[in-house]
Specification:
Blueprint lengths: L1 H36 L105 E2 L16 E8 L6 E9 L10 E8 L14 E8 L16 E7 L11 E8 L5 E9 L2 E8 L5 E7 L7 E7 L12 E10 L10 E2 L4 E2 L3 E2 L5 E9 L4
């Protein structure tokens, strides 16, 4: 009887111990479960939403990034990128701490175009404004010329041209389009008229089958009054821009010598994208304010006249003393030609005006200018 009772006692103690161990294990498991579900630290599960976590984390640079946070590509999570209106998003130009990106390439799925800047860094050259993923990509890998400091151009010869840079391709070659972006400068202090424009002109014996004569295609940013057919009620309320064709040598631009379309009023610092292109014999000027995304355009038939002279100009009408309040900056300018050219070097420029080293595309059909600066001070 003593042996049987001892056996029963040992069994009861074993069963009690087993039950106690099972109870403790169950309690530990229940305690660990909410911690795992609520984890938000580095190294946690895929639902943690922390930078550096696996797919589905919603973290910067990972496959699970919320697409709605990447309007310009490559930067996800809760840190929206700074939108570079000029192109590509560069790593260091975003809101992300640059120290986390130094020397690191963007992930394959991030949507960032590293562009022709520092390889793998996602950063654009400090001296190149819109080269990355912009329209100047047509010149990628082309022949680089010299900037205005290394190769000064001949001086300007027209008295109304306060500042300017010009490029001429000899006849019979022709310019098919001019694209550029201009930053709206501070308003002048004088209530006189000041014009800022890129332009195209037929020059040096270029074809003019309908005898259109000596006119200029020009989207004009205007401070003050103008011969433009459409203009604001108060031309000094703000800078305003419209597409125009000015020609006082024939009646091609109408009785006043000025033909044009509707206008846009602008604000200080606005970026205006301008495109002048030919289709058939029609030349169309399109101007878009990249802040408001409002667009105006103007089309005129020049009946086959060839344009071969490109210009970026600050113009002061004769007899006026108005001066620009600050430098005028054009970025990402691209000329496209009907036949290859051998150089993109401007042939004329103001003494203090600046143009970056031009790039001639591999096929010779495009000239790209990263930056043109028309100086306020002479």
């Amino acid at each position: 009887m003593r042996d049987a009772g001892g056996l029963r006692g040992r069994r009861l103690r074993w069963l009690f111990g087993f039950a106690l161990a099972a109870s403790i294990a169950s309690a530990c498991a229940e305690e660990a479960k909410p911690r795992a579900e609520m984890s938000g630290v580095a190294g946690g599960p895929a639902t943690s939403g922390v930078v550096g976590q696996p797919a589905g984390a919603g973290a910067a640079g990972n496959p699970g990034v919320n697409v709605g946070m990447q309007a310009t590509g490559g930067l996800g999570g809760s840190v929206p990128p700074q939108v570079t209106p000029m192109g590509g998003v560069g790593g260091a130009s975003s809101s992300v701490d640059a120290s986390t990106q130094a020397g690191s390439a963007a992930p394959a799925d991030a949507g960032v175009d590293a562009g022709p800047g520092t390889a793998g860094s996602g950063e654009s050259d400090a001296g190149s404004t819109m080269t990355d993923a912009g329209i100047t990509s047509v010149c990628a890998g082309g022949t680089v010329g010299k900037d205005s400091e290394a190769a000064p151009a001949a001086p300007l010869t027209v008295s109304r041209e306060y500042a300017g840079v010009k490029y001429l391709t000899p006849a019979p070659n022709q310019i098919l389009s001019l694209k550029t972006t201009m930053k709206v400068p501070k308003t002048p202090s004088s209530r006189q008229t000041l014009f800022i424009w890129p332009g195209l002109q037929s020059k040096g014996g270029s074809a003019d089958p309908a005898r259109i004569g000596n006119g200029v295609l020009q989207p004009v940013l205007t401070w003050g009054s103008s011969c433009a057919p459409r203009r604001p009620g108060d031309p000094y309320a703000a800078w305003w821009i419209s597409g125009m064709y000015v020609n006082v040598t024939t009646d091609a631009a109408g009785p006043s010598g000025c033909a044009g379309g509707d206008f846009l009023s602008t604000e200080l610092g606005d970026l205006i994208a301008m495109d002048m292109s030919v289709k058939g014999t029609d030349w169309t000027q399109t101007m878009t304010d990249l802040r408001t995304m409002k667009t105006v355009d103007f089309t005129i038939d020049l009946e086959g006249q060839v344009q071969n002279n490109a210009m970026w100009i600050v113009e002061v009408p004769s007899g006026l003393t108005v001066r620009p309040a600050e430098d005028v900056v054009f970025t990402q300018s691209v000329l496209t030609f009907s036949s290859p050219v051998t150089t993109c070097q401007p042939n004329q420029a103001g003494k203090t005006d600046y143009f970056s080293a031009p790039v001639l595309s591999r096929d010779g059909l495009h000239c790209c200018y990263d930056e043109i600066i028309l100086r306020a001070q002479r």
